[in-house]
Every structure is written in structure tokens, then in C-alpha cells.
Amino acid sequence: MTAPGAAEASEAAVEVAERRLHPVTPLRRAWAPVAVLIGWAVHDPDGAQRHLTRLTTTTLLIGLAVLVPAAALYGFCSWWFTHFAVTESELRIRTGLVFRRTAHIRLERIQAIDITQPLLARVAGVSKLKIDVIGTDKKDELAFLGADEARTLRAELLARAAGFAPETAHEVGEAPSRRLLRVPPGVLALSLVLTGATWVSVAAALVVPPVLWLFTHSLWTVLAVALPLLGAAGASSVGRFVAEYDWTVGESPDGLRIDHGLLDRTHETVPPGRVQTVRIVEPLLWRRRGWVRVELDVAGSSNSVLVPVAPRELAEDVVARVLPGVSVPEPAALAPAPRGARWCVPLWWRGYGLAVTDAVFASRSGLLRRSLALVPHAKVQSVRMTQGPWERARGVADVCVDTGANKTVRARLREAGEARELLAAQAERSRTGRRDARPDRWMA
């Protein structure tokens, strides 16, 4: 039984440990009531227009006089009732003005902590802390914190997650980082120009609207089609350039750190041991320059790009940091699909290949846009063989491996006998790989 004095002291300690977000946060949250009105107007534009035409100048001014203070009060109250605290075992976040919500995030379940700075946040000197937790699809976040406070809190959470004592976690600080790779803006821009998807989206945005106008002569139909096409074209060209600008990859004890962004600056971490699959993508127009793109599947995380564009040698060096002990198989080491597969997938069967080493299951696909997927044996959750009626007739089958990121890597069109042998051998490799795998620990 705890003495009354000890209980009061414990509660006081908890109160002292709780902190509030940055004072600029109410300005961000005050937009919520305004966003509701804007959403209603977009959903029902005719009704919104009718209501606006009925309003007199006096009524409109009175409405603004009520709405602006109400929005400001909502932003202030939501900020005032939001607290967070770091204990020995968890990060606690209390939110809610009417309906209270308390999130208890166990430190050992944290697998990535990212810092993002939207453009206005960079001007105000604040940052958003996004926390990836094992077993959840949605990130918890603290928005906004002072830029220095966000970095300090991130370092403290990672230190405690790594097992440092609470009294020393503040002293550990942010782990040092060594830069591995930086993508020059000129190389990034040229890579987007040499990407087929960019030209397809731009061509569709330029060709489809005039054709629709010739057949329909309806301005609304043309706008309804043209605006999404223009948005897709912008996202695949200018949007990607802005998002991937100044892409930098650094190595630190808590994983690989990725910094990027022209307007919105993002600081992400690829957690050690959580990478399930690495894909090395090689578009057709990049091959002459020897460029590749490296993509990831990370368990429970939204991080999907490791390197947007880089020479193959540099990219493979970064892959070796993500998957220790794994070397990327040479193209000549990939066994092609048998000639009988040409009746299942004409022409495209030439793009399939497979290599299985002591450390990794490597499957290649694609003819114009090659993609080599690397799955460490320790990350394979299940393996199966699939065979449709046409594949049975041609004596081929697919071997599929499932990873912890709920993704599947498929070795297409292997000979049926080879596929059955591969099925049994891969199950044994996965068991051995999980037994010998190093523990997934921060700062290990």
C-alpha cells in the first residue's frame, strides 16, 4: 500500500513531466471550423451559392464576427487540453476537448520517428513529430513543437527505446550521422524527364481534353477530366521534384536518415531490422546512364523510397547498409524463365529472372521498367506455389513469398519441378534465417 504522501508526490511528478505543444499550434487548429464550412460549400456548391446570395452585408459581417472568435477559441482550447509526457516505458498523449483520448505508446514498440516541417512551419520555426508504432497503420503525431525541442524529444525517445536509463536519456542526444549519398537537383530533374510515366501523364493532360471538347462541346465535362489529368501530370513531374529535392541519405546508429523536400522539409528514419523488401528499379531510359531507384517495404511504416535516383554502385552501397550481409546479385546470376513460359506471357516472359543466395531471395520482373526485389530469408513469413490451368499445361508455376509488410514477392514462371524444390528449400532457409537473425534494436 502506498502512503498518501508518496502518492501525492508521484502525481506531482507526473504533472511536472507533462508538456504542451508549441504556442503557435492554436493557429493551425483554428482552421478546423473554417475547413468544415469550406467542405460543405465544395460538397454542395449550389446550396452554398443560394445561401450566400441571401446574405446581406450586415449579416455577413455579424457571421464573420462570430466565426473568427469561435475558431480562435476552438484552436486555443484544443491546444490547452493537449498534453504529452514521457515516462520510463511509454509516451503518453492526452487530447480532446469534449471527447478525451489518451494514447499510451510503448517505447519498445516505436520503430520510426520522423520530423517534418511544412513551409509555414519552417517560417515559424516549428516541427511536426510523427511516430511509427508496430502494429498500427496510422501515425501518432505531435504538431507542433519547437524545432530544437522536436530534435531533443526524438533523441530522448530513441535513447529510451534503446534501453538507456531515463536519467541518462537526456544526455545521450541525437546519434551522429555520416552522409552516404546526396542527389543533385540537376540529376533529379533529368531523371524525371527520362521517366516514361512523366511523359504519359503530360501527354494525357494535353491530348485528352481537346479530344473531349471536339466530341462533347461541354465545358464542364472537359474541366471534370482535365483538372485530374493536370493534377496527375503535376504530381508526377513538378510534385516529385519538389518532394524529392535535395534528397540526402545518412547513416547513424538508429538507422538510415533521409532528409528531403524543397518547400516541406522532411526528416525520416529507416529503422534497423524493419526493412522487409528492397526493390531496385531501372527504367528503360535510365540504363544508358547507369541510374536506378531504390524502394522499400518497411513493416508498419509508410517509408517507401530510399533513393530516388543514383548510380547503381552508390545505390548498392546504400542497400548493403539497409540489408547487412546481403549483396545484390549480378544480372548474369539471375536464372531466366524457361522458354516454355513464352506461351503464358508472350514477349514479357524475357523480363523474369530468379536468384536465391544464402542471404536473400531475389526476383526480377519487367522488360521496359526492370524491378529486382530482394527479400532476406529471415523476413519471409510464408512461401507458396501457385499454378493456373494454362501454366499447368505449359509445365510452369509461380513461387510467392510473403513478408511482414503484408506484401508479396513473386517469382514468375519457373519450371514446375524447380518450383516444388524451391518451395521446400525456401521454407527451410526462412527458419534458419529467423533463428540466426540479429535482434531489431535501436542503436544496436
Structure explained in plain terms:
The chain has helices at residues 4-17, 25-29, 31-43, 45-54, 57-80, 119-124, 147-161, 166-172, 185-193, 196-216, 219-244, 312-322, 389-394, 416-436; strands at residues 83-86, 90-95, 101-106, 110-117, 126-133, 140-146, 178-182, 248-252, 255-260, 265-270, 275-282, 291-298, 305-311, 335-336, 353-356, 360-365, 370-376, 380-386, 396-403, 408-415. The protein starts with a helix and ends in an 8-residue tail after the last helix. Helices cover 42% and strands 28% of the residues. The protein has a seven-stranded antiparallel sheet with strand order 6-5-4-10-9-8-7, with helices on both faces. Helix 3 crosses helix 4 and helix 7 (147-161) crosses helix 8. Residues 1-16 have low confidence and may be disordered. Strand 2 (90-95) and strand 3 (101-106) form a beta hairpin. The longest helix has 26 residues, at 219-244. The protein is an alpha+beta fold and 444 residues long.
Break the fold down into its secondary structure elements and pairings.
Layout: H1 4-17, H2 25-29, H3 31-43, H4 45-54, H5 57-80, E1 83-86, E2 90-95, E3 101-106, E4 110-117, H6 119-124, E5 126-133, E6 140-146, H7 147-161, H8 166-172, E7 178-182, H9 185-193, H10 196-216, H11 219-244, E8 248-252, E9 255-260, E10 265-270, E11 275-282, E12 291-298, E13 305-311, H12 312-322, E14 335-336, E15 353-356, E16 360-365, E17 370-376, E18 380-386, H13 389-394, E19 396-403, E20 408-415, H14 416-436
Antiparallel strand pairs: 1-2, 2-3, 4-5, 4-10, 5-6, 7-8, 8-9, 9-10, 11-12, 11-17, 12-13, 14-15, 15-16, 16-17, 18-19, 19-20
Helix pairs in contact: 3-4, 3-5, 7-8, 9-11, 10-11
